[in-house]
């Protein structure tokens, strides 16, 4: 091609991106593309498409972190190539993981935090699976030793997150989930004991129930199980789902006894990417003592060099989130976590007060530090008909980018629709005040234009968790 032929070479010089031929067509959606294209062009196409996602900082449905310090972003970049499972190749990342395990054991008052066992996971779901399997194994071992059958295991929980439904279904365990009742939305010791028998592999209280954000009474349940053991000889272990609460209660409700201070609590899971303040993709499971993790759950792997202990379900996994967890522990310490979370509780309280003042709503939970997570939820006042439902309210708030989920509670309170706001790191007081103003405008809008919608829960809350 002659160099002076300008029209021909136009295709090859750095065009203004959106005038380029790459971006003058629509991108393939279902067929595997045939040819390569310029990185810069494709970056623009993909980056632009991501604009259509909701703005995560305005997503008040999620429990997960949406704010990160620049140092966290830098560390994530530094760790791009570190595989958590290659403990021989990346011994320092492995060492950092081990330090986090011991620090968490210490935070949760393990009698021997330096010798406890545990691991990082991709989140609480994987961690719950590992904790659940250990309960099942330990129960099976005792049953076998006593010459008793192991074909009908059951698990007793309050209203749980879907990960426990998965655990029960994957491993053929009967889930005895305590249904909600009028005036009682979480487990009580009496309801737990009624469902326990010799086939119960464990009891799982949740520290921060997904639906209502409240802490279940771990200590009272442990004491009830102590009495149950005295009466029946049946010893039932507990695993606490501390997905949120595991990183809240130690800092903001230090007197609440829910952790390894209770000998019956054998394992705890938490989500590092929720109130652990780390980027998405890290959870933890810790056993009270090494003996509480059955040997069958530990795998030894020699093909990465060395003979490495592997507990997690996943094999390859990114290391950055774990490294950032360690960063957060060092950066914040107990005091920093307490201050960060306290700011969120204060904002939840502020929102509860303001939303109660709006008129049609009754606050169910107001973000009380001693009894739940920094969040708040409300329902429509009994007998109130403001011309809209909570689903309409959620839908209209979305026009300003706010994602505030409305959803029906699980069994037996499916009749009760509530709306919830999670106050996370970065949901500031100022942003919250803007949200309240937007809520007022939405209510005024519905006063002028009442709707009586037939939108279903599923349609209206496609973004709920
Ligand atoms: C979020 C959550 C889970 C699942 O945790 P992931 O980290 O998202 O896998 C389990 N239990 C409770 C109580 C939760 O809040």
UniProtKB/TrEMBL annotation:
- KW Lyase (keyword) present: yes
An example GO BP is: L-glutamate catabolic process
Record keywords: Decarboxylase, Lyase, Pyridoxal phosphate
Which cellular components does GO assign to this protein?
A: cytosol
Positions carrying N6-(pyridoxal phosphate)lysine: 274
Cofactor(s) essential for the protein: pyridoxal 5'-phosphate
Task: Write down what this protein is called.
Answer: Glutamate decarboxylase
Native species? Rhodopirellula islandica
Q: Which taxonomic lineage is given here?
A: Bacteria, Pseudomonadati, Planctomycetota, Planctomycetia, Pirellulales
